[in-house]
Amino acid sequence: MDYYIKKKHIFKRRINTKTKFYLINSHKKYSIYTYKNIRLEFTYIKLFRKLLRRKYVKARIKLFKPRYWLYLLPNYILTQKSKNSRMGAGVGKLVRMVNLKHCSKNIIKTWRYAFTYLLALSKYLYFKIALRCFVR
Fold this sequence. Notes:
The chain is an alpha+beta fold. The protein has a single domain, classed as Aldehyde Oxidoreductase, domain 3, CATH 3.90.1170. It contains 3 helices and 7 strands, in the order αββαββββαβ. The chain has a 4-stranded antiparallel sheet with strand order 3-6-1-7, covered by helices on one side. The protein is elongated, with a radius of gyration of 25 Å. The protein starts with a helix and ends with a strand. About 6% of the residues have low confidence.
């Protein structure tokens, strides 16, 4: 027992050192909104993730990782048969789930992304999937 009492590093209390965070100018939160009512399919999630990877952020911001949130929940089902098909025939097979967004609703909320990059992203989304959006 005396051996363990003499060894102080066993009973040493760990000290929690707090990291000092310094504010950088790009700490603002921006969001990408829609101009009009749109239908977003869930195949676009892969495109959003590709465009918002961390490699687009400058290397000096290693302390604060940029974050983004996609506001896409399935609220509409696309089926195989058209809306005006015969009565009693059913609605058909499920094709895919989509999200119907109304005018000026959030699509993506970002943290620590450059405003100029988000403007370029909104232009790219217009040319790629015909999505009219604005950054605020």
